[in-house]
Design a protein that fits this description.
Elements lengths: L4 H11 L4 E6 L6 E7 L8 H11 L13 E7 L3
Parallel strand pairs: 2-3
Antiparallel strand pairs: 1-2
């Protein structure tokens, strides 16, 4: 079952409560999203570490073909 943008944001916000989070439904199908997550906790992390932290916050929603979330284009950074 497709996820809603709000569900994705809520999962990320549980781990990153102070983050600036923007979720965009890329195809209008509830399966292909883009997310931008800007959070101070990313300072000193490389991009791979930042993205792994966000994927961990999704709690398995992207795991394999049976995952609720099919595709997520992820952009992460620390605040400038």
């Amino acid at each position: 079952m497709p996820m809603q943008a709000k569900e994705i944001e809520d999962l990320i916000r549980e781990t990153f409560p102070d983050a600036q989070i923007t979720i965009t439904d890329l195809a209008g199908d509830g399966n292909h999203y883009a997310a931008e997550v800007i959070d101070a906790s990313f300072k000193g992390m490389n991009r791979v570490q930042q993205q792994r932290a966000v994927y961990a916050a999704l709690k398995g929603k992207m795991d394999g073909p049976s995952g609720d979330l099919h595709a997520l284009a992820l952009t992460t950074k620390a605040p400038g």
